[in-house]
Automatic annotation (TrEMBL):
Signal peptide: none annotated. The keyword DNA repair does not apply. PROSITE patterns: ADH_SHORT. This is SDR family NAD(P)-dependent oxidoreductase. Keywords: Cytoplasm, NADP, Oxidoreductase. The keyword Membrane does not apply. It comes from Paenibacillus aurantiacus. It is found in: Cytoplasm. Residues 4-188 form the Ketoreductase domain. Belongs to the short-chain dehydrogenases/reductases (SDR) family.
Amino acid sequence: MKPSVVLITGASRGIGEALALALLGRGDCVVGLSRGVSEQTIAHEQFKAVNVDLSSLAEVEMAMHRLFETLTPDAISGITLVNNAAALAPLAPIEACASSDIAAHLHVGTAAPVLLTSLFLQKTADWPVPRTVATLTSGLAGIPAASMSLYCASKAFLNMFTRCVREEQRLSPRPARVIAIDPGMAETDMQAYARSRQGESFPVGTLLQQAHDAGQVLAPRDVAERIVRLLDEHGADDRAVLKV
């Protein structure tokens, strides 16, 4: 049986790592695009690490060109891009954010997923296999939060970007499935860092701590399993943004 190929950004830790392990465990081929690599994922024969700095669009484009030189639709049953990587910092009022931090956040959180989606759809346009683009979003896309303007705005951008690309694909003779997935709250390094930043300028930190204390923060493995189930639903989606 031909394997499915899944490209995951930020597969070296957190939800990305857990998702990669879940897919590898069932026999999929996984390509991790990130600056680091997980010891657990790299141990699998069907895992390929692509070292790329997602804050550099030139690196992203070069990495995708090189990667698709090694892929062929004849050897696979389907291909998926998961835009998982995200930036959390800077967590501060916008007037306190350095220009370099603003640029880095927007490159990772918005520009990189847009470019990856564009290149993925270009390079697989004629492939006679199911194609999916899934972008991880957040409930904060619809909730204004102090000191999180960049993060909230980036996720809101990705939700609208997903809706627009879905409309474009409906006009395509070989449409790809395009969705955004809200994974909810997961126990990741980003979540722990956000909880640690409690104070008047960052009230969300207190709310996150309360959710953690109430047992509402899921383990990455549990979130990954739910994401896999959503990815396996190859039918038409009623909504652009799905929740695990």
